[in-house]
C-alpha cells in the first residue's frame, strides 16, 4: 500500500481540507479522526445524525465520513439531507456485510463505502482518492456527445442545456465514457479507471451505471447511450440517441 501524502490535507490558498466524521462509536470516531488529523486534514466530529447536519451547516465539509447506523437519524437520511444542500463527497461506513445496505448507501449518493471492521489507514487512502477526483481539473478539455456536455474545470454537466445533478463518481464515470466511446469496458476496468482501485465490490460500478442511466437516458429501462455488453460490461454509444 502506498505511503500517505501529507500535503493532500491542504488546498490552494492554505485552507485546510475539512472532513466531517459521523459515528456514534467514540472509539471508531477518535481513531479515524486521529488518522485524518495526522494526514493533514481539519476534522469535525458528530455522534448522531442531527448533530452532523448542524456541524455541516456551521462549517461546510469538503468530505463526510458517515456511519450508516446512527441514533436519531440514520446515515441514509443524513446523506440525502447533506446532498440536498449541495454537492459534497460522502464515504459511507457500515458494520454490516449485507450487500443491500451497501447498495442503499450508493443509491442515495455515497461516493464510496468501507465495511467495518476496517483499516484506518485504508480509509485515509480512500478519503485521499475521493478528494483528489473531486477537485477541478483545469487541464482537461470540455467534453460532449449525444446532447451531453461536461466541463471538467467547473465540474458541471448538462444534457441539451439542462443541468445534470451528478455525484462525484457519476461525473467521473460519464467523463470516462465520453473520453472512450464505442469501446467495451468490464466492471473491473471501470473500478480501476474511474475509482482508482484494483480491488473492490463490483456492485459499486453496477449501481453507479444504473444511477447514471437514470439521469442521461431518455428511457433508463431501455438504455441507448450506456449499453450493456453481455459477458463483458458496458459500452458508451454516442450515436445511441
Q: What is the radius of gyration?
A: 18 Å
What level of helicity do the residues show?
25-40%
Principal-axes shape call: globular
What proportion of the residues form beta strands (DSSP E)?
15-25%
The whole-number mean of residue pLDDT values reads 84
Structural class: alpha/beta
Give the topology.
Layout: E1 18-22, H1 26-38, E2 42-46, H2 49-58, E3 63-67, H3 75-84, E4 90-94, H4 99-107, E5 112-115, H5 120-134, E6 143-145, E7 148-151, E8 156-159, E9 162-163, H6 168-179, E10 184-186, H7 187-195, H8 203-216, E11 226-229, E12 233-236
Explain how this protein is built.
By secondary structure, the chain is of the alpha/beta class. Helices cover 38% and strands 20% of the residues. The strands form three sheets. The protein has a five-stranded parallel β-sheet, with helices on both faces. The protein has a four-stranded antiparallel β-sheet with strand order 6-7-8-9, with helices on one face. Strands 10-12-11 form a three-stranded antiparallel β-sheet.
Properties at a glance:
single chain, 241 residues, alpha/beta, five-stranded parallel sheet, four-stranded antiparallel sheet, 8 helices, 12 strands, 38% helix, globular
Amino acid at each position: 500500500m502506498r505511503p500517505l501524502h501529507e500535503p493532500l490535507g491542504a488546498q490552494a490558498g492554505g485552507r485546510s481540507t475539512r472532513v466531517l466524521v459521523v459515528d456514534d462509536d467514540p472509539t471508531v470516531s477518535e481513531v479515524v479522526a486521529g488518522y485524518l488529523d495526522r494526514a493533514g486534514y481539519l476534522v469535525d466530529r458528530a455522534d448522531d445524525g442531527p448533530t452532523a447536519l448542524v456541524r455541516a451547516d456551521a462549517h461546510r465539509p469538503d468530505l463526510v465520513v458517515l456511519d450508516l447506523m446512527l441514533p436519531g437519524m440514520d446515515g441514509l437520511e443524513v446523506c440525502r439531507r447533506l446532498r440536498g444542500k449541495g454537492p459534497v463527497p460522502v464515504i459511507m461506513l457500515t458494520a454490516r456485510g449485507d450487500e443491500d445496505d451497501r447498495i442503499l448507501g450508493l443509491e442515495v449518493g455515497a461516493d464510496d463505502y468501507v465495511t467495518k471492521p476496517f483499516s484506518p489507514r485504508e480509509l485515509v487512502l480512500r478519503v485521499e482518492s475521493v478528494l483528489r477526483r473531486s477537485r477541478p481539473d483545469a487541464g482537461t478539455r470540455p467534453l460532449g456527445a449525444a446532447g451531453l456536455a461536461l466541463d471538467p474545470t467547473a465540474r458541471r454537466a448538462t444534457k441539451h442545456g439542462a443541468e445534470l445533478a451528478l455525484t462525484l463518481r457519476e461525473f467521473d464515470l460519464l467523463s470516462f465514457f465520453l473520453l472512450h466511446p464505442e469501446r467495451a469496458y468490464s466492471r473491473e476496468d471501470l473500478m480501476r479507471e474511474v475509482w482508482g482501485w484494483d480491488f473492490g465490490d463490483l456492485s459499486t460500478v453496477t449501481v453507479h451505471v444504473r444511477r447514471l442511466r437514470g439521469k442521461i437516458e431518455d428511457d433508463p429501462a431501455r438504455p441507448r447511450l450506456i449499453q450493456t455488453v453481455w459477458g463483458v460490461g458496458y459500452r458508451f454509444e454516442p450515436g445511441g440517441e
